Amino acid sequence: MSATASRPARPDGAGGLGTAGAGRFARPLLGAFLLAAAVDLAGLLAGLDTVHLVAKPLLMPLLAAYAAVRGGPRLLIAALLSGWGGDVFLLAGNDLAFLLGMGCFAVGHACYLTLFGRDRAPAQVVTAIGYAVVLVVFLVLIWPDLPAELRAPLTGYSLLLTAMAWRAGALGRYAAAGGALFLLSDALIATGIAEWPRLPVPDFWVMLTYIAAQLLLSLGVLTAKSEGAKGRRG
Question: What is the pLDDT of residue 22?
Fold first, then answer.
């Protein structure tokens, strides 16, 4: 949403509805997102595929709308809508759709990484080493069991995802937890592709960690933005 000529642009380049609009719409949108998440997870536990097909595509648009009315940065909205694209493609369940879905999520991670890179908080070297070790060990273990045609794209995607998860920590504990959960969610998907032993109702755990990850990343960005605005006023 562009600013009018009579109103100065927002410093973060975001749209939003202002404080009054956010107060009116933010809670209902967050409530709708949480309701859709609960319905989706319940449908997975009950084995109701139709419920999942209906509820899953609603998740990221609702979360993106919530972030928008909270005045979230455009890169956050773009990351969430990229996740929506990935969600929709992965519902198809074929190899081409999987690659397209992975591409959408990669765009989302690039948006997050760019957004997190704007923060001036110092990067944690110890955390970076920890993530790097986890990534290398996981790839070494899973590599022989991956389909040959997916090894290269999954490796590139994993590098981008791990970088995003690491850098998310610059925005505080919410974003840090969200980045870690996103990594866990996609690791659960990868183990399924490799046909490793999985938890009961594996799609439930994938979606639970994914939903929590996107919500925590969004809250981390919005909280950091709010705290930054308070600091400028102070």
Answer: 61
pTM of the predicted structure, to 2 decimals: 0.86
Over the stretch 88-143, which tens digit does the pLDDT of each residue have?
A: 999 998 889 999 999 999 999 999 999 998 765 665 788 999 999 999 999 999 99
Q: How many CB atoms lie within 10 A of CB 165?
A: 30
Number of Cβ atoms within 10 Å of the Cβ of 125: 8
* SS3 per-residue string spanning 86-116: HHHHHCCCCHHHHHHHHHHHHHHHHHHHHHH
Residue 146: strand, helix, or coil: coil
Asked whether the beta carbons of 22 and 65 are under 8 A apart, the reply is no
- Enumerate residues 6+ apart whose C-beta is below 8 A from 39: 51, 55
CA distances from 126 to 129, 130, 169 (A): 5, 6, 12
81 vs 133: CA distance, rounded Å: 30
